[in-house]
Amino acid sequence: MFDIKDEKFTFAVSPFERVVDNDIDPEHHRWDWIKSFVEFSVPGLKAQFQTEFTVGELLELREQFAAHHNALIAQREIEPFEFQSQCHQLNMIIRKVTGEEGVIIEYDLRPEAHADSIQVKGDFGINESYFPNILNRLDEMIKWQN
């Protein structure tokens, strides 16, 4: 999904296993789970944890990233998108900066899958150059096979 790294910031989400659910959606597999490893670090804080996403929510997230990418290219405004993962360990708001050529991603990370987990909140900005990689990585996650 993400692989954004520089000298002071790391945000990477990498798939490692697909759990197939042939009972709910045997044709399109939108309820298959993609288990993923999340790595996040800023000066003074490093978090690594596992979470999972359904293929359906990854498809929706990809659609919204593509829409925001197209809005940047066309220089038009678009409504913010709020992504809440089924496990509530990675939540985001994707918001195009009004009148600018960038997007702000507000994140809420919870390294543990329960309500009492610590929360890491913040935001970072990306420009149009990041979108092809994000879209390709989302495609890889959606198609991930063990």
Describe the overall structure:
By secondary structure, this protein is of the alpha+beta class. The protein has one domain (3-142): Transcriptional Co-activator pc4, Chain A. The protein has 2 helices and 8 strands. A 4-stranded antiparallel β-sheet has the order 1-2-3-4. Strand 6 (90-96) and strand 7 (102-109) form a beta hairpin. Helix 1 (55-74) packs antiparallel against helix 2. The longest helix is centred in the middle third of the chain and has 20 residues, at 55-74. It is globular and about 45 Å long. The two termini are 17 Å apart.
Number of helices: 2
CATH architectural category: Roll
The helicity comes to 10-25%
Helix/strand class: alpha+beta
Which H/E pattern describes the elements? EEEEHEEEEH
Largest sheet: 4 strands, antiparallel
- Cα separation of the termini: 17 Å
Low-confidence blocks of residues:
none
**What portion of the residues fall into strands of 2 or more residues?**
35-45%
Radius of gyration: 15 Å
CATH class: Mainly Beta
Could you outline the blueprint of secondary structure elements for this entry?
Elements: E1 3-6, E2 9-19, E3 33-42, E4 45-54, H1 55-74, E5 81-84, E6 90-96, E7 102-109, E8 120-127, H2 131-142
Antiparallel strand pairs: 1-2, 2-3, 3-4, 5-6, 6-7, 7-8
